Backbone:
């Protein structure tokens, strides 16, 4: 794989494209959660993003958390429904490995430990919404902030490497 990346410019370009347009969507799959995630996928596609949803069998050589971390590494930012039971673990694991903008959304205030995520990742944004229309209106503003954060992270990486 490393040889392929170093020898094939198209693969490097693909990774760069994902990192410039990829959005990892995390959330619950039960009780209408999967339907909401698919609606969000369509919403992001309409805005020229490449949404990624872990709605497939995990690879044989990776556990679920490793798969989510891999997908997060390819993404520009993460959008997460905190009502998904495994989402806090997925966010913790991801943000322990990467500095990524994160937008979390819920129809009620975030779980109590979200403040710890915000403390460790200054690029965390929370949406509490009343209904679907409210979610998408607030998502528009949060995506703009995530875009600015992604640019800031990129500049900080460039500055730190000389």
Residues:
């Amino acid at each position: 794989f490393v040889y392929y990346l170093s020898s094939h410019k198209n693969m490097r370009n693909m990774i760069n494209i994902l990192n410039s347009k990829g959005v990892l969507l995390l959330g619950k799959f039960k009780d209408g959660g999967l339907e909401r995630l698919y609606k969000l996928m369509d919403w992001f596609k309409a805005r020229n993003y490449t949404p990624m949803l872990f709605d497939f069998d995990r690879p044989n050589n990776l556990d679920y958390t490793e798969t989510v971390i891999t997908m997060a590494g390819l993404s520009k930012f993460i959008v997460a429904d905190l009502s998904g039971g495994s989402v806090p673990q997925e966010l913790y694991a991801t943000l322990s490995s990467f500095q990524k903008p994160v937008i979390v959304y819920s129809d009620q205030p975030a779980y109590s430990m979200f403040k710890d995520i915000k403390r460790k990742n200054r690029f965390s944004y929370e949406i509490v919404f009343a209904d679907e229309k409210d979610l998408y209106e607030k998502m528009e503003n949060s995506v703009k902030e995530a875009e600015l954060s992604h640019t800031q992270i990129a500049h900080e990486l460039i500055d730190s490497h000389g």
The two ends are 28 Å apart (CA to CA). The first strand starts at residue 22 and ends at 26.
